[in-house]
Amino acid sequence: MNSWITNNVWLIPAAPIAASLLILAFGKAARRAAAAVAIVGQIAALTMSIFAFVPTLHSHGFRAVQNFTWFTFGEQILRIGFVLDPLAAAMLLMIALVGLCIFVFSIGYMGEDKNFSRFFAYLSFFSGAMLGVVVANSLLLLFVFWELVGLASYLLIGFWIERPSAAAAAKKAFITTRIGDMGFFLGILLLYHRSGTLLFYDGGRGCLEPVALSAIGSSVTLVALLIFCGAMGKSGQFPLHVWLPDAMEGPTPVSALIHAATMVAAGVFLVARVYPIFSVGAINGVTPSLTVVVWIGVITGLMAALIAIAQFDIKRILAYSTVSQLGLMMVSLGAGGVAAGIMHLLAHGFFKALLFLGAGSVIHGLHHEQDIRKMGGLHRLMPITFLTYAVGMMALSGVPFFFSGGWTKEEILHATSNWPRSHLPHYLALIGVILTALYMTRQIIYVFFGNRRAASEHAHESPSVMAIPLIVLAVCAVFLSVVLTPAWPWLESYLTGHPARFDARLLIQPMIVVSLALVGAGVSVGIWMYRRAGEADPLQHAQPALFRFLENKMWIDEIYGRTVIALSAILARLSDWMDRHVWDALVQDIGRIGQFFGRVTTSADERVINAGVDESTSGAHGLGRLMSRWHSGQIQTYLGAVALGMLALVLLYAWLG
Amino acid sequence: MTLPILLVISSGLFCIGLLAALSRRHAIFILIGIEMMLAAANLNFIAFWRFGPQPAQPTGMMVAIFAIAIAAAEAAVGLAMVIVVYRHFRSTNVDQLDRLKG
Amino acid sequence: MVGLISIVILIPLAGAIALYIGQPKNARTVALIFNALSAFYAVMLWQKFDVTASGLQLVERHVWIPSIGAEYLVGVDGLSLLLVLLTSLVFPFAFSAQRLERGACALMLVTQAALYGTFSAQNFVLWFLFYEMTLVPAFLLIKIYGGENRDYAAVKFFVYTFLGSVAMLLAFLGIYFAKGTFDFAALAGLGKTGLLAGKLQWLAFAGIFLGLAVKVPLFPFHTWLPDAYQTAPTGVSMVLTGALSKMGVYGFIRLLVPLFPNEIKIAGPWLLALVICSIVFAPLAAWAQRDLKRMVAYLSINHLGYCLLGLFAITAGSTSSLIDMHAALSGVFLQIFNHGLTAAALFYFVGLLEQRRGLRGINDFGGLMQRTPLLCGWMSIAMFSSLGLPGLNGFVGEFLIFKGSFATAASFTAVAVLGLLFTAVTFMRAMQALFSGPLAESCGGFSDLVRGEKFVIVPVTLLMFAIGISPQFIFNIFNATVVQMARLFA
What we know:
The structure holds three protein chains of three kinds. Chain A contains 27 helices and two strands. Chain A is mainly alpha-helical. Chain B is mainly α. Chain B has a single domain, classed as Helix Hairpins. Chain B has helices spanning 3-23, 27-50, 59-89. The radius of gyration of chain B is 17 Å and the shape is elongated. By secondary structure, chain C is mainly alpha-helical. Chain C has 20 helices and two strands. Chain C has helices at 4-22, 27-48, 78-95, 102-120, 124-133, 135-145, 150-179, 184-191, 198-215, 224-231, 234-259, 261-287, 292-316, 322-357, 368-371, 373-386, 393-408, 410-435, 451-469, 472-489, and strands at residues 57-65, 70-76. Chain C has a two-stranded antiparallel ribbon. In chain C, strand 1 (57-65) and strand 2 (70-76) form a beta hairpin. At the A-C interface, strand 1, helix 6, helix 7 and helix 26 of A face helix 7, helix 12, helix 14, helix 17 and helix 18 of C.
């Protein structure tokens, strides 16, 4: 079984995609069957992922590759393939498991939707595409799945398509990510041109292997940055982050699956996957491309965390939190902590899905109310949701020892503190940690504590079909803290391929203390600030201008609207105008010149040639008219004329002699 | 009797004939005018012959007789046409006979 | 003895005559029967075609007018066969788009015959005859059966393209007087050394370029296209974009590049700049359109721009490596086929919407997804195919074109990627306006896809998927030709 699955990794993404097609083809009538098929597909993927995970544990640096020819063009061959290595296996497991929880949750959450089966088709399709991204062994194949993931995201954000805001958000997501993808596409072209292959691993000839890497030469930084453009788009990094908060227009399970746990992590995964390209020629682990990654990550992380403080929509807070965490992962990758970044990605996948599903449960219980100012006091009414949400909150805030996020955050901070270029990212990351604790505390106080406000009067706990996935995810979030414990860094060693040793001393480190202190600070500041928060936000009272700035997302959307979008809209109008009034006018003018010559020749024809003939005939006619007047018919007149003529002749004769 | 007198008489005759042919309305009178002009011409022939270089030979007489014969034939044709015209138009007034008007 | 190619050319002509004489009641059915026949023979052609051999196959050569070097010379290589197959595909598709009158059916069949001829003729005189033969029925179809503003559009279309043809004819006469042959293969052999002396060579180049650039059309010679496509009946628009526009690209590949390799090298950057304008400005203009048909028409310009990008990049730039040549040429060939399929499908869908609503402004619809989910779903697939989504046919061709042109014209290619983006923006806007939001009152009575429509759409869409996922069967048609042409262009 093990070797069988390592040789047929493609089956893992194929299972959900097949389920999706099956539902699309036949599922319209059968709602139950549609959900069942989707879940069976997902379980199949999960099972295979587990089987695929097992062999990767056994040996360090395990890598199974199957390459095959996609097509032959001319005499050239284009090959793609699938790969199974620890990175892929860990991601597979996370995606399949989180996905399964969300599928189950959706049965309850979407239970009354009239397009229930279509929703499951899209979810399955997304899941398959995402699994495909993970196991692709070719940048091209990865791009293919990458775009399919984008398509699935587009479909799911715009799932409630009758809402104009959802359609607009879907459009925005697709276009924004596509802007990044165009850079990615150019990166693929450049890489292909330079290295001659797009396969990651190909028995020493792949583009992540030394021979091809050295062939890329001087343009390697450019390749890396172009690929990073794609990662920026998908992972919502500044300045392409604007789509992600808007994407919360989609159903909450979608937000959980796509915009928290898996798809947005694809950018981070991509950077990790092609890390050799980023790190070519690294001195002390620093390359120009990685430096860019660090700074983009830092800017994103801090900016999103700040914005999250001033949001009122429960999902938007989580969305900005996601953006912020993704920034943190990028920082980690850029600063050399690849394993830390990926571990945070895995942990984040669980607890952020948990948080989103918790938020979904709240929204469901409150009949689709999303404004946290209208919630409050829910910890009694929705105990399961509250408890699981609290677990998620603590994991996200980075409480060490018992929650997964704590260890991974600590690892990330560790990586940034060792970054030789500058210490600023490290300090900014520390601020980010405080802010994270702060906004999560704010949210939890608003939602679960305090007085019951407008919407929470008729709140009810969600049914078990929604509660169980929450519990599973919460358990995972806690359980991962054991898996990720730095005392036995097996996951890190598993990802990096270095052997791990158990060392309990690693549990107590300066960074852990720092981390704990920061989280404590954030939480206590949060409690102090928001303990009596009412309809109006305390920060809003204290700093109205600042709050407005953050509440309006730093006006980045507005700035884009006035600049990039306005500019391209003007360009579009301009091209249309040019088409009508310049290029077409030019053609019309040439046509008019032709017409003018036509008129000239016509008039020449009419006035000169035709008129000449007409004149001479009418002249002859008139002359005849004139002469005919002499022909009076009077014989005597003629005779008289003859006589006169004769007389004239006689006179002439006489005169001439 | 000298040549000039004869010529004056013949030209007088001719002029009277011409005047008659031009001024009379009746076709018969026009024919008579024409006959008078012919007579004037015949008179000229005779006069030129009698006072010409060879009066002994009868050439002038011959021509005159010939011309008179033709004139007779012509008059016959002319009268016949006048009769036809009269039958057709019930008139011999040449002023009314303008079917050739252009 | 009449060869297979001649049969393929003659069947639609026979169909046109049959429609003319027989005056059948259901003209479209008769036309479709003749389509099926010609498609059958086109497939037979494919069967007989040896995909491993390069060069012309199934050649038929007859004396025609020896005194001017005109021969009846037809034959197919991979490219020609691809286009013959595409024509066989697009026409039945177009016929099924709407009910056409008997006269229109007959004219369409004449166009079809002329297209088969254009794609298989190998002698200039014969080729030109067929090439122009497409023009007259197309003109009549727009002029007689078109919509609003049809007189203007038809005359513009005819005069504009005809002007280009005249320029091309003059150029070819010049070449003929210098070299004494009209044979494509012979002329291509002479191309390297220059066909004419000095300035005349450039004049000839300019003439042929103009003729083909108008036909494709290439920016800024494209302004006839939106008017013509917008006005023509749906089926005719499908044929215009799906098959007719391919004649220009075909001409570039078959004539201009082999005949004037040196001139293209010199003029290359300018040609590429024009192509880039086509690629970038056309989707931008499409974005600003209100009329769906006009929008699709502009995007058509953009897609054909990719074909020329690949072609000019490998021939204009410094020497390309073999892989880039093969990639670009394969990409161009595939893109020709893909565009024919996808653009025709898009026009088909716009036609369906127009049939239901009576209008086709982008703002005349709204919330269709609630009323006609199937129509929206399948139409979205065509749109995604057109914007180059992986898994559908558009992506493979575009990837190869970009791959091939990137090596020699990296900066141009980088700008051209913008075209992909603007195409996406245009389609996103259209989808948002058409499918999303509350159901527009005027669309309340729409029917979803009926059986007949599904019967047409499903095979076409499956073909899109097939090419997108496993395109090898298409590549097999022209791989040998790609290799041969790459050798010729190198």
